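re: ur question from yesterday

yeah so i grabbed the chain u mentioned. its 366 aa long if i counted rite. heres the sequnce exactly as i have it in my notes:
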Amino acid sequence: MEPSGAGAPTIYDVADRAGVSIATVSRVLNGHTNLRAATRQRVMDAVGELKFVPNGAARGLSQGLKKVVGIVFDGVPATDDLLSVEEETLLFSDSIVRGAEAGASQLGYSLLLNSAGGSSGDPERTINGLTGKVDGLILLDRVLPERRVAPLAKRIPMVLLAGSGRTRSAVTVRVDNAAAMADVAAHLVSGHGFRRLAFVSGLAASPDSTTRAQSFVASVTELGGTVQPLEAWAADWTSGGAARATRQWLESGGELPEGIACANDQMAIGVMHVLAGAGVKVPEEVAVVGFDDIPVVRHLSPALTSVRQPSRQLGATAVEVLVGLVEGRPPASRDIVLPTQLQIRGSCGCRAEHHGLLSETWDLGV
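ran it thru and got these structure tokens back, copy pasting raw so excuse formatting
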């Protein structure tokens, strides 16, 4: 029997060719396993012969799917100081969202964005309001403490983007923060011979910031160096927050560290801004290292040495994993770790590069 009508073959044509019901074709296409192998093969043979392409939207409707996934991020309020424009958004999060948008589009899904607190200022209330609008949720770092994820994950498929990787209630997609910071420590202590270092941290509730700080301190100490008190250099992921912490340290008369590692690039920018204003030369007097490798840092003077993490790939992977959960294809691992690379540039005291191009790459892949 030839396909009905003049258009593309339909599910009805596949059912006729295979000699089965439309419901059976739908079960085969949606991956149900309670079918005889011979029946499944007849349907797949008919699909191949007719060159039938399942309609993603129709399949979504048949499964009760909305074909929408949500991503919830933690907004950062702006302030009025010189670097407030940097504080209105975390540039690394923007890059993740772009990757998530591309990944969702490729899989036939739409992406719904939402700030954690919303107008209510209550992250859980915001998330609860989303659960009826989406098929699954991605939560970025800091949106909820991991202990509060489990009850939500029982109601809706969920992926944590960043985090400790220790929670069992949701799949985590992250990079190996501990290995990355151990390598930064080795480069500064063993590579440059620095012994007196500082670490500028993000928000205290962030698993990413906590892991990076702990790894850096442990690695520096093991190599024979010291790290100045973490609380003295505590910031909030923003360039303005790091600028304030640096300014307060300088005004306190504290000893200048030989190197400063930052939990993200935006804070490194804030640190370099204040050091320059105080007449402290980077890297001649203080080396500075960031984390994320956002594009702008390659064009600073000196260009910033930074740990590159694959921001867009993180977003795309989180969507891919979430869609798999929604459609009944859980990943083999509940802790998915992507590789990072240490990009060596001028801010740590290594040889200068030409027009901001990196001079060396250290691969921290896992």
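noticed a couple things. The radius of gyration is 25 Å. also The longest helix spans residues 91-106.
anyway ttyl
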